[in-house]
Amino acid sequence: MSVPTTAKLTRNKDDLNYDEITDKRIIYSPKLAKALGGVSTAVLLNYLLHISEGKDNPYKLSLTRDEIEFATGLNALEREAAIQKLKAQGLIAYQVSSYSTLEFSFSLPTLERFLKTIDNRDKPADSLTVTQTKVDPHFEAVRRPISVAVSPNYRFDGPWESQQQFEAFQRELLEYFKQKGVPNPALWAFKVIDSITKGIISPLWDDFVNGVPLETSQQVQRPWEISPGQPYPAFEEERTQYYVHRGEPLDSALAKARRDLRNPEFAKDLWEGFLRKYDRVADDALKAQKLGVQTPYLPPAFQEQTPATKEAVMDKLTQLASPSLPPQETATADTPSVPSLSTLQSAYAKPMGKNLIKKLINQHPEWGYGIEDGEIVDLYPF
Q1: Taking 50 as the threshold, does the pLDDT of residue 1 lie above it?
Q2: Spatial contact of 105 and 57, defined as CB atoms under 8 Å apart
Q3: Which residues, at least 6 apart from 284, have a Cβ–Cβ distance to it below 8 Å?
Q4: pLDDT band at 151 (very low <50, low <70, confident <90, very high)
Q5: What's the pLDDT at 237?
Q6: At 3, phi and psi to the nearest 5?
């Protein structure tokens, strides 16, 4: 069971000179180092076996820390790590008898079984009975590659029934996020699809399958809205006028009013106050009507507001930018003015004005208006 060496080492470090230290070395097997999990562990075991030769009780040793360091070159950290690995293998027992003295004892059956396993080169590696330990921390281990092989035909697995349906969903997601104004629509579309493949329920996919615009199922119509996200015009105008009276420009006041009404909790409180305020206004108007007032007062918020459209604004700006255009002919007694479409539509919506407006439109085809599906439309919008 002896381990081959080139020479015996004396235990008195003062008796060794430089030539003896360099010429007389302990030899260890690379296979032994690999099985023990490090070179330091193999060096220490080889040294202990070497020292045990010629002892009356070769399986019990008492050594100082300086002796071990001088003979093996292992520092305190390396020595303790090697000792712990040998103990984990069950090859030695170890205890500290004093501050500088260490006592070791060997297990003969375990040593014989371990060395026999090392010498048996024909057995496969998985048949070794010795547990492999971690690599010596003082020798760099080869890192495993961190890349992961991906199948070249990888596909997203999800609830879609075909590749065509999957691609159609992607295109609709891209368009949806473009309309939302997100900075990277493709990235957001990927996040939605990736979450669906991981089992996350997506209302966007449900809307796509049901054939409705994306986010429809997530919209909620509040009591102060005529449709999801669209507040009553009078309610919005009331909040806008609040900011106007505080000195805000009209565009800023409108933006702040809409921001307030997009906050459900805040808008709910505003709506309750709005109803109370105009409940009193309506009571006063009804009292005035009973007293004979034909047109009771209503606040500006309830007056009809003509929305500003891009076409109307551009038309006015074009007229200002083109002063050379001939001015439009003013209406005279012989050339009656053409009523606006909104005026006719408002009068046509009243039961008493329906027949009158229909008659006027038939008498004046030059106005370019007609009645289709019960509504007055512009026959020549361009």
Answers
A1: no
A2: no
A3: 296, 297
A4: low
A5: 87
A6: -100, 130
pLDDT tier at 152, thresholds 50, 70, 90: low
> What Å distances lie between residue 313 and 90, 224, 307, CA to CA?
92, 29, 11
- Express the helix, strand and coil content of the chain in percent, nearest 5 each: 50, 10, 40
Nearest to 169 by CA among 227, 211, 225, 230: 211
Q: Which of 12, 52, 45, 13 is nearest to 26 (CA)?
A: 45
Residue 163, both tokens: 């590749």
Which tokens in the block code for residue 242? 């609040």
- Kindly list the distances between the CA atom of residue 258 and the CA atoms of 199, 237, 380, in Å, as whole numbers in the listed order: 36, 10, 35
Look-up of token digits 């609040």: 242
C-alpha to C-alpha distance for 116 and 62, rounded to whole angstroms? 26
Q: Which distant-in-sequence residues (6+ apart) come within 8 Å of 69 by Cβ? A: 75, 76, 79
List alpha helices for the chain, DSSP H: 18-23, 30-36, 39-52, 65-72, 76-89, 108-119, 163-180, 185-197, 203-210, 233-245, 250-261, 264-290, 310-321, 341-348, 354-363
